[in-house]
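User:
Note these tokens:
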Amino acid sequence: GEPFGPEEAALGTWSAAEGAVPLEWMDAISENPAVGAVESWNLRNFTMDAHPIHIHLVQFQVLKRVVTDPMMSPHGMLGQGAVLKPERWETGWKDTVTVYPGELTRVKARFDVAGLFVWHCHILEHEDNEMMRPFRVGPEDPMLHLTTTPRTRS
């Protein structure tokens, strides 16, 4: 029969010029904060599923959510651009946050430990199907064996 639900979801980057740019594990690292940097990451969900996004070795704070697609968002009745505060259980330090469909979730993290780490969807089937990306804190370490190289997209 027909498959039920999405067959594949990907993490990646977004820009006003290109829109969503899905990336695979072996694509070049796109997130590279400096050691000690505090960054806000916007996690935007273009799928119909909620994704528990986990950032390894980082504690972060959930700052807000913004409705980007009212037809997909569970908060869509508030309208495009509606800003939601974190839920009460999200006000402390976290390492995983649920990113809802049709929404952008903004988190703020301090990157204190240098090295190569992973951020990914915490749903096992999604981890196994490329919804996982490396990120590097600080400069590249030649002692690490994992390297990523830019790939040509056709």
The first strand starts at residue 11 and ends at 15. The radius of gyration is 16 Å. The mean pLDDT is 87. The helical segments are 124-127.
